[in-house]
Protein 1
Amino acid sequence: MEFFADWHTHSTYSDGRGTIEENIRAAVSRGLEELAITDHGPANIGVGVRGPESYLQIKDEIRKLNPQYDSISVKTGAEADITAPDGTVDLPRSIINELDIFIAGLHPYVWPSVINGVWSVVGINQAARFSRSAREKARVNNTKALKETVNRYNVDIVSHPDLRMPVDIPELAAACAAADTAIEINTGHHYDKSELVKNAAGEGVNFVVSSDAHFPATVGELEAGGLLLEKFGVPAERVVNARKSRS
């Protein structure tokens, strides 16, 4: 398979090291047709955007830059944080409606939006590193929160669902398949994703391969994700940012 888009990259609006334009130039150099700037939501402690209105600034900057790069379409997106057990994210719907790409995911260090989220969203996942029972409880909590998010919002992509926070992948994948939400194969975080692909593929869910680039140099580095999907027999037709190779 060959990739035409990288829909998960970060800029200096959050914890990325490159500007939006530097990411665009990197994507153009790799021959991509589409790029999305998807900075972290404001509840991500220490790395998120300053506030929800930052996405309007990003959108305006992209609008001004797009005419200068006619070989690529640059989209405004966000990687929102789940901040409550009921699937609430850290962006209002008024901002989400302004986005071209909406990614949602779990992150270990966020500001919960409700009191009980201090334990059920954050604390239990820290305890899960040391306790098997806490890990199982975290798995239940995380899976429920992700499913609630997918059901409540028009989520395009669930980001790195198995990264450091346990999730029941088949259960999540079934919910994503029903909601037409893609599960991400993230090439920016280097960990074994074999179980993710193996357990999700049988549920009929579609995938997206993303760089999660925090540096312009890694924008569009997607090949490892494609090789992994091919290893498990996932065809290009089920990878929303890929097509069959013409070679």
Note: The longest strand covers residues 73-81.
Protein 2
Amino acid sequence: MSDKKKIDKLIVAVVQSQDSDLVERVLEQAGFSFGKLPSAGGFLRERNVTFLIASEQAKIPELKELVGSAAKRRVSYLATPIDNAPFPILLPAETVIGGASVFTFDLDHFEEF
């Protein structure tokens, strides 16, 4: 390949596991190099997938658009106890989950074997 891309950015995108298959598909279709790691976190202890994506600077806006369109935010309900109640009463609390947390780092060196 004579027209070698200059990979100079590392994007770390954390998405919910239920969105990971779609994120993986759109990244593959767009030709991005990536790796993925299972992870867990947040106060809801949800399972996540962390994508490590190599990119050139010019493709960052496209990459963010792809990840953002594949990893949607949604509303979930969490049972929370009422404070100072004489006996345990749980009320559903609306919580927004999903989406993606995206971090961009400068990359000094990249090789793909």
Note: The chain has one domain: 9-106.
